[in-house]
Amino acid sequence: MSIDVASTPIRNASVLPFYRFLAKHPRDPVSAFEEVGRQAGGRLVRLNMGPFRPYLVTHPDHVQHVLRANQPNYVREGMFWDPLIPLLGEGILSDGETWQESRRVLQPLFTAKYIESLADRMADILTEQIDATVRPGEPFDVVNGISAIVHPTIVRLFFGDRISKDDIDRLIPAYEVSVTATWPRLLMPFVPASVPLPGDRAFRRSIETINRVVYPRVHEARRTAGEGRDVVSAICRARAEDHGEEGDRRIRDDMVSMHGASTETSATALTWVWVALDQHPDLAEKIYAELDEVIGSEPVRPSHLPDLRYLKMFLSELVRLYPPGWILPRKAVKDDEIDGVRIKAGSTVMISPYLTHRLGAFWDRPAEFDPERFGPDQDRRHRWAYFPFGGGPHKCLGQHLFMMEAQLLMASLLSRFRPVLSASRPVRPRLASSLRPNQKVELTLVERARA
Ligand code: HEM
């Protein structure tokens, strides 16, 4: 699909009428978005969204250009990121020098080896959270129920015993409000920050609550960092040279940013697990057979995970079709050219794993859920055709952590129960800050009869 740039004059991107597609699918915006992807067919296009005309990048070569080859030109700034600055500060979700410094501090922590060292603790916390949340035989709302397991698990892993149950109960709703309260600003990016919008006050209050919980934990971790195996202690050790308020603030920014990057994404991915199992009973049987063979009636331990190969393939396919980070927005700093198409400085460039993962030119039967794509004998695919965890210098730090958490959670539940799902109509993704289901989905866990 690439063209000879040397012999072709630079041209403007063709424009796709996104509003018209939306009008065609008024109840199902994700179908409109999929249609955009099909019509673009890997070409670099602009979307006509009224006064806002972002570029849409889906071809793997172009994704590679934006996320890696010319990455410094595509920064996490602009309408999607700026409203979040008061929450995220100058940490790992910023860009430029402050991001670079956070990455230098955090990257060595998130090695597979460090994550493995957290595994036993994670398995124990998950078991406690599952016991506190799931009532066998009684239905629970999948989105809320999975969040009620995943969010406290991550907070407890990050802060260890330094955080009380009361503080967890204050922190988690505050995070939730902080993310949802910025929606009016995201929908009306042309409104200056000085003009108040609904949600602004709730946003400020949620940040105050987050700070009241997080700062004391940071101060305490600074005093006793040598002893802690939790994430905040590890960061305090890595930032031992950064003294005073500025140092505290940077640790706070990284803790809050990592919470933002890890909880909603993990909970969303783990919500789709149940939908996919329900839609594919044959694949569910393969998972049960593997769990019976590897775990039997024992409690799930991290030592089981390397043998749960099919489960890992299933999860890889899950985040292909339902990547929680379905859109990765950037701002172009300078004029650029991708495959002969002009990118204007200052404009928004959107990369979409959701669309790239469905491109027919790079995926056989793209809409079909097939974990075998990630089996050991598969042909190598284009390196940038699959990037649920992003790529290049901003690549996700939590990929191993997520895989461990997801395998532990699924293995813990599915080795004991069979999920029975109820939904009023076919479940489709809803385009929001992450890719949640478009309706309430209820799950009942029924005790499994084993052979
Ligand atoms: C299913 C689960 C997850 C998915 C799909 C996911 C996806 C992503 C994606 C797409 C990015 C790139 C963002 C960008 O380019 O702007 C990213 C970055 C990041 N993720 Fe994850 N993530 C997940 C879980 C986690 C977890 C559990 C952590 C815990 C530490 C985490 C920490 C981060 C951080 C710190 C970054 C920013 C890295 C940087 O900019 O240097 N993620 N993630």
Automatic annotation (TrEMBL):
<feature type="binding site" description="axial binding residue">
    <location>
        <position position="396"/>
    </location>
    <ligand>
        <name>heme</name>
    </ligand>
</feature>
<keyword id="KW-0408">Iron</keyword>
<keyword id="KW-0503">Monooxygenase</keyword>
<keyword id="KW-0349">Heme</keyword>
<dbReference type="Pfam" id="PF00067">
    <property type="entry name" value="p450"/>
</dbReference>
<dbReference type="GO" id="GO:0005506">
    <property type="term" value="F:iron ion binding"/>
</dbReference>
<dbReference type="InterPro" id="IPR001128">
    <property type="entry name" value="Cyt_P450"/>
</dbReference>
<keyword id="KW-0560">Oxidoreductase</keyword>
<dbReference type="InterPro" id="IPR017972">
    <property type="entry name" value="Cyt_P450_CS"/>
</dbReference>
<dbReference type="GO" id="GO:0020037">
    <property type="term" value="F:heme binding"/>
</dbReference>
<protein>
    <submittedName>
        <fullName>Cytochrome P450</fullName>
    </submittedName>
</protein>
<dbReference type="GO" id="GO:0016705">
    <property type="term" value="F:oxidoreductase activity, acting on paired donors, with incorporation or reduction of molecular oxygen"/>
</dbReference>
<dbReference type="GO" id="GO:0004497">
    <property type="term" value="F:monooxygenase activity"/>
</dbReference>
<dbReference type="InterPro" id="IPR036396">
    <property type="entry name" value="Cyt_P450_sf"/>
</dbReference>
<comment type="similarity">
    <text>Belongs to the cytochrome P450 family.</text>
</comment>
<dbReference type="InterPro" id="IPR002401">
    <property type="entry name" value="Cyt_P450_E_grp-I"/>
</dbReference>
<dbReference type="InterPro" id="IPR050196">
    <property type="entry name" value="Cytochrome_P450_Monoox"/>
</dbReference>
<keyword id="KW-0479">Metal-binding</keyword>
